[in-house]
Design brief:
Elements (H helix, E strand, L loop, with lengths): L1 E3 L5 H12 L5 E5 L12 E4 L9 H4 L4 E5 L5 H10 L4 E5 L3 H4 L4 H14 L4 E7 L10 H5 L4 E3 L11 H13 L6 E5 L7 H12 L5 E3 L2 H12 L1 H13 L3 H4 L4 H6 L6 H7 L6
Helix pairs in contact: 1-7, 8-13, 9-10
Bound molecules: NADP nicotinamide-adenine-dinucleotide phosphate (NAP).
Amino acid sequence: MILVTGATGNIGTALLKELHAHGAGPLRGLTRDASRVTFPDGVQAVEGDFAEPASLKPALEGVRSMFLVSRLGPDADILEAARQAGVEHVVLVSSITVLTHPHLGPAGENLVVEELLGASGMAWTILRPTQFASNALMWAASVRGHETVRAPYAETALPTIHPADIASVARVALTEPGHRGRAYALTGPEPVSARGQTEAIAAVLGREVPFAEISREEAHAQMAAVFGAEAADAVLDVTGGDVNDELLRVRDTVAQVTGTPARPFRQWASENADAFR
Ligand SMILES: NC(=O)c1ccc[n+]([C@@H]2O[C@H](COP(=O)([O-])OP(=O)(O)OC[C@H]3O[C@@H](n4cnc5c(N)ncnc54)[C@H](OP(=O)(O)O)[C@@H]3O)[C@@H](O)[C@H]2O)c1
């Protein structure tokens, strides 16, 4: 049995589909509300809340491999619950910032989870993706409303990754030999800026999408109101304020692990056009 956590999220939705399509055996998806989900035929939806590790017991029963989205609860307790349930292999989503910006708070938290997993006694594979293409969904309401997309660091081009590519790497790591004890930095196939992403969305919609660059201060005020000041600073640093060569670098890890090149941002935009219509 493979358990996919974050099963209704950007990666988890694609991962369950891909595991199902590859006939990966019995599959289970974790969600806090099974009444809302539509998983592929035969995939079990099981409720559990990371905030209450004891609630994960039904989801973990009989599980041998697990895809884990972290930092949504007490990770040490969640990993211990998995170990006690007999989980043998955990594929963990961390972040490329553990390599590029280890001094930042969220990166430090990811490093702690990586270390907890490494010390857990379970086999591990760590995925360290860069910024997701799906982050562009934060502009969806503005685009639908024919308003201007407003973002800082308009020209900073990062090798944004399609979440389905993270899912593809996770599927391979969960189902094929040779990926235990490996940590993979994952990027998309080409750098794309916020302005470039907006242009790609405009192209699939077949109309203009106005774009305006805003200052770090303006962006910080908006983000801090939602995530807090420290998280806002961290996001702004890694999206343009303090980028470095390692963060900007395109890597071919997705192709190496899956045998298929990583998907460009314009493909994500095309597949998700309805969210912007
Ligand atoms: N976005 C980026 O640029 C970026 C970059 C690097 C790394 N990451 C990492 O990627 C991960 C996010 O992946 P994603 O985009 O696929 O997720 P997502 O779309 O944000 O979805 C979050 C998922 O987590 C589940 N969830 C939330 N709170 C939960 C809780 N208390 N208990 C159980 N499940 C809970 C949700 O399930 P239900 O609502 O159905 O319960 C949902 O399936 C995070 O670990 C993040 O740190 C993101």
